[in-house]
Amino acid sequence: MASTARVAATAMRGGGPFEGLYKFVMRRNSVYVTFVVAGAFLGERAVDYGVHKLWEYNNVGKRFEDISVLGTRQAEE
């Protein structure tokens, strides 16, 4: 029993990947602000791309680009 408690205490002391990331990001205010701004930019791009693809998927055949007769005129003779 004592050995399992020792292993658990050692594992908790080491931290883990999230604690390492936290220590890296919170090291300085400039690193934190850069992380937040970059995360917001990349998150916005990902959401915009996903919503755009979902919109195109749901509106196939209903968009202006899909209707071939719009914008064309018959030749006058």
From TrEMBL:
GO BP annotation list: mitochondrial electron transport, ubiquinol to cytochrome c
Gene3D superfamilies on file: Cytochrome b-c1 complex subunit 9
Chief location: mitochondrion
Subunit and partners: Component of the ubiquinol-cytochrome c oxidoreductase (cytochrome b-c1 complex, complex III, CIII), a multisubunit enzyme composed of 3 respiratory subunits cytochrome b, cytochrome c1 and Rieske protein, 2 core protein subunits, and additional low-molecular weight protein subunits.
Top-level taxon of the source organism: Eukaryota
Official protein name in the record: Complex III subunit 9
SUPFAM superfamilies named among the record's database cross-references: Subunit X (non-heme 7 kDa protein) of cytochrome bc1 complex (Ubiquinol-cytochrome c reductase)
GO cellular component, one term: mitochondrial inner membrane
Function field: Component of the ubiquinol-cytochrome c oxidoreductase, a multisubunit transmembrane complex that is part of the mitochondrial electron transport chain which drives oxidative phosphorylation. The complex plays an important role in the uptake of multiple carbon sources present in different host niches.
Record organism: Acorus gramineus
Membrane topology, from the record: Single-pass membrane protein
InterPro entries membership: QCR9, QCR9_sf
UniProt keyword annotation of Lipid biosynthesis present: no
Compartments in which it is found: Mitochondrion inner membrane
Pfam annotation, one family: UCR_UQCRX_QCR9
Entry-linked PANTHER family: CYTOCHROME B-C1 COMPLEX SUBUNIT 9 (PTHR12980:SF0), UBIQUINOL-CYTOCHROME C REDUCTASE COMPLEX, SUBUNIT X (PTHR12980)
Family membership noted in the UniProt record: Belongs to the UQCR10/QCR9 family.
Keywords: Electron transport, Membrane, Mitochondrion, Mitochondrion inner membrane, Respiratory chain, Transmembrane, Transmembrane helix, Transport
